Amino acid sequence: MIAPEINALVSQLHGFDTPPNAFIQQVMNYFRTQQFYYSLTPPLMEDKPIETFLFKTRTGFCSHYATTFVYLMRVAHIPARVVSGYQGGEINQLGDFLEIKQADAHAWTEVWLDNKGWTRVDPTVAVAPERVEQGVNVEQQIASGLVNFNLGQRNGSEDALLKRFRQAWQNADYSWQRWVINYHNANQAKFLAAFGLDNINKMLTWLLVIIAGLSWGLFWWLTRQPKKALDQAAQLYQKFTAKLSKIQLQKQASETASVFAMRVNQHHPELAQAVNGITELYLNIRYGKNSGVAELKLLKQCVKTFKLR
């Protein structure tokens, strides 16, 4: 149901008794002369937003003006619709591409006119023509409440060095999006052509050859590495365990020296003193802080004189 005040406004602007072109001009003049304001931070209009915007707040951005304009057109039985997109942009001199930011987002309208079809009408022009002609500077969006649109300084007020740095960053981001995120078959073909590879099969062949060559080189290098000699304490301990293996007491790989010594002692208590002495010396040399040449000589002597009784 159309609010009475809306019907009254459309009637006041001769929406019911003049051609569409005349009513469009009346609405544009109404926005222009009745103290409407363009703002990026308008008040909330949760209840009856069209009526609130037209008769109370009279403050909004392009979407408010486009939506209200279309609503008034439809009340006057003129086909109209809201169109959203982007207005403006800036050429990135480093990457030679057009930068379009969210700050360039815009909304306008289209009205159906006989013999012309859908015709663009931008009601924002009536309130803030600079917004449509030059776009919105993102810093002004953040800083402004009721925006004072002096947008002719958009490029002139920006520091040259800062602008160049920003464009360099945008160029890097654009290149990443283009060559990594949006990498597809056409880009792949161009990349391969730069290396004289005209199809994926050739690339795979060369890739396998390279991998095989690298694998062979790594294998050759590993096999030529000298085997690390066990330290003297470990060699002496191996001689000790080799002697015990003669009486069916092989040290398991999972056994520590202490556990192996306990097992030997259980089977041959008569060897406990010698086994414990050698084990303690070995562990002290390998893991102790104060072991030295004297302990190593003593271990060598103990292993040498160790006898299976």
Describe the structure.
The chain has 309 residues and is mainly alpha-helical. The protein has helices at 4-12, 20-33, 49-57, 62-75, 129-134, 138-143, 160-181, 185-193, 200-223, 232-245, 257-267, 272-287, 293-305; strands at 37-38, 59-60, 80-86, 90-92, 97-99, 105-113, 117-121. The protein is elongated and about 130 Å long. It has 3 domains: 4-159, C8orf32 fold (Roll); 162-221, no CATH class; 232-305, no CATH class. The termini are far apart. The strands form 3 sheets. It has a 3-stranded antiparallel β-sheet with strand order 3-6-7, covered by helices on one side. Helix 10 (232-245) runs parallel beside helix 13. It is built from 13 helices and 7 strands.
